[in-house]
From TrEMBL:
CDD domains: LSm1. Residues 10-85 form the Sm domain. Belongs to the snRNP Sm proteins family. GO terms for cellular component: Lsm1-7-Pat1 complex; P-body; ribonucleoprotein complex. PANTHER family: LSM1, SM-LIKE PROTEIN LSM1A. Component of the heptameric LSM1-LSM7 complex that forms a seven-membered ring structure with a donut shape. Keywords: Cytoplasm, mRNA processing, Ribonucleoprotein, RNA-binding. This is U6 snRNA-associated Sm-like protein LSm1. GO terms for biological process: cold acclimation; deadenylation-dependent decapping of nuclear-transcribed mRNA; hyperosmotic salinity response; mRNA processing.
């Protein structure tokens, strides 16, 4: 027995419009996946061909190749169509970097966020908000 109700059917029929088109999937964990949507099922699980993950940290970005990729439907937050023929145009201030560089930038960003949270905890008594 399927738990998919009538509201879920609208989601799947709308995904049919994106078949064989280049799409961007925003996932619940914040990741962005780009690839050609080749298949999906009634639970909105999606198969992307030629997929890559776009990682953006500040003004830096990197496209990490994933190949053929299956995404669980409940993790998809947003789906958008991209133009298959044209090259993606990013703002001019964005700089493409290698995978090791973006990993270092991600690590530094996470460490800065942890430090900021710990400082806020220490000064919680000030009621800064």
């Amino acid at each position: 027995m399927s738990w998919a109700g009538s509201a879920d059917m609208y989601l799947c029929t709308s995904l049919a419009n994106y078949l064989d088109k280049k799409v961007l999937l925003q996932l619940r964990d914040g990741r962005m996946l780009i690839g050609v949507l080749r298949s999906f099922d009634q639970f909105a699980n999606a198969v992307l061909q030629g997929a890559y993950e776009r990682i953006i940290v500040g003004n830096l970005y990197c496209d990490m190749r994933l190949g053929l990729y299956v995404v669980r439907g409940e993790n998809i937050l947003l789906t958008g169509e991209l133009d298959l023929e044209s090259e993606e145009v990013l703002p001019q201030h964005m700089t493409r970097v290698s995978e090791p560089e973006i990993k270092r930038a991600q690590k530094a960003e996470k460490e800065a966020a942890v430090l900021q949270r710990s400082i806020r905890k220490r000064f919680d008594f000030l009621d800064l908000e």
